[in-house]
Amino acid sequence: MSILQEIQKRRTFGVIAHPDAGKTTLTEKLLLFGGAIQEAGAVKSNKIKKGATSDFMEIERQRGISVATSVLAFNYKDYKINILDTPGHKDFAEDTFRTLTAVDSVIVVIDVAKGVEEQTEKLVEVCRMRNIPMIVFINKLDREGKDAFDLLDEVEQKLGLSVTPLSFPIGMGYDFKGIYNIWEKNINLFSGDSRRNIEETIAFDNVNDPELDKIIGEKSAENLRSELELVYEVYPPFDREAYLNGTQQPVFFGSALNNFGVRELLDCFVEIAPSPRSKASDKRVVNPDENTFSGFVFKIHANMDPNHRNRLAFVKIVSGTFERNKPYLHVRHGKKLKFSSPNAFFAEKKEVVDISYAGDIVGLHDTGNFKIGDTLTEGEVLQFKGIPSFSPEHFRYINNADPLKSKQLEKGIDQLMDEGVAQLFKLDFNGRKVIGTVGALQYEVIQYRLEHEYGAKCSYETFPIHKACWVEEPENPKDAEFQDFLRVKQKYMARDKQGQRVFLADSAFSIEMVKQKYPNVKLHFTSEFE
Ligand code: G4P
């Protein structure tokens, strides 16, 4: 098979959802179809219930599990599918945002009863901003939920999407009789008494077949016919171009738990979802079918074993092929590195591979060379874009609680920040270190990991900051307005880990005041700007 064919058969995507919508269940069913796992229950959820730190610590201790579920790859028909794990818990939102830089499309899972929830809104917004193609899967149709048309409206309103259903439910909850597959133009009947088994499906080519009345009842059949008429009237036909450029989102209905509607979703997905897409860098746009390799680190996983401070850096291959033992340029360090045992992922296992293709993820063993966003190439000096840091939501001073271990603390903080666990800011006027996180949970995680992996102790002190604003440097650094801003706000000026200037604003009001008083000072809410 040629390299181009290898690349074109790849589908690298993420499943995003509010916790409990059914992401893990759906992923598992997809793997079952691929024959990658034999039984349900094989995919471990690394879900954190209600923010319990103990749960998180337990998960961290069983790090093997979460490494394994970071990438789940399997073959289906002629396709190679890579599913990237995206934590649904809001405290790990930043991890999910970064993973979204490595996917070529997403499937959004929505609970039919709960509709669009908070995390779904945030994650979809990020995908929308990046024009990532999205398919919506409305789950739990075996339960009582919202009316299908109301739900489609809600998805459009709350998520700002333009949907078109590619399947449509027949009844719901107790009366759930099956699904009309608009994409394949047939009907699959849900005949579950046990409701827990993979159901047999009966295919109907024509919705007007009188046989249908006999099976689902005259009333349901009539209902379905009129609902479908409305669907065709209200929603535009599926337009693949529009889906690929992020302006139309097809919708499927089903029940992941009952494995109902999942095959239909998967069959359509492999057909319409994009193969690896091009990616912008600071120099040029890089295409997947280029001959030379390039890729970037989107995730770093630490091994919790204190005796092996070994990390796994996850690299998305953007172009060409990645080969074992071939030297690649670590662009930030300007040096060549070879990898003797790159890991590829298959189902929930990882194994050493000789060659991987654009679209694939390789896991590289790392002793501290990498940080999130690092680019690897065959020699070209370029840096991939679109892996920004967002402003944290919580800020605390970090103090050394064991003066004899200050070196260990430095190193620990440094490496945890490279992994993207949190962000570090250093105040200009007194050099104090401030840790910014998306969720309060991370502070305990950092404390725990510093102690167990680095033998260092820390304590925190509150620092009531509202938002981190990255400050654009003016063309003339001596600019009077800029200098005045720096002087007046000197207690709130800091540097991030890359040395970029950051204004730590203590309130929304203070940001407004800066905007009014210093109209030429440019503030940004992410670390990456033109
Ligand atoms: P998540 O990864 O998005 O957080 O969700 P997960 O798949 O863990 O599913 C959350 C809960 O919803 C699970 O129940 C799961 O069994 C259930 N679920 C998923 N899909 C369906 C469906 O199609 N119909 C119904 N009725 N339920 C569904 P749980 O009780 O929290 O966990 P468990 O004890 O069953 O594992």
UniProtKB/TrEMBL annotation:
GTP binds at D85, T86, P87, G88, H89, N139, K140, L141, D142. It is found in: Cytoplasm. Gene3D superfamilies: P-loop containing nucleotide triphosphate hydrolases, Peptide chain release factor 3, domain III. GO terms for cellular component: cytosol. Keywords: Cytoplasm, GTP-binding, Nucleotide-binding, Protein biosynthesis. Residues 8-277 form the Tr-type G domain. The keyword Nucleotide-binding applies. Pfam families: EF-G_D2, GTP_EFTU, RF3_C. GO terms for molecular function: GTP binding; GTPase activity; translation release factor activity, codon nonspecific; translation release factor activity, codon specific. PANTHER family: PEPTIDE CHAIN RELEASE FACTOR RF3. Increases the formation of ribosomal termination complexes and stimulates activities of RF-1 and RF-2. It binds guanine nucleotides and has strong preference for UGA stop codons. It may interact directly with the ribosome. The stimulation of RF-1 and RF-2 is significantly reduced by GTP and GDP, but not by GMP. Belongs to the TRAFAC class translation factor GTPase superfamily. Classic translation factor GTPase family. PrfC subfamily. This is Peptide chain release factor 3.
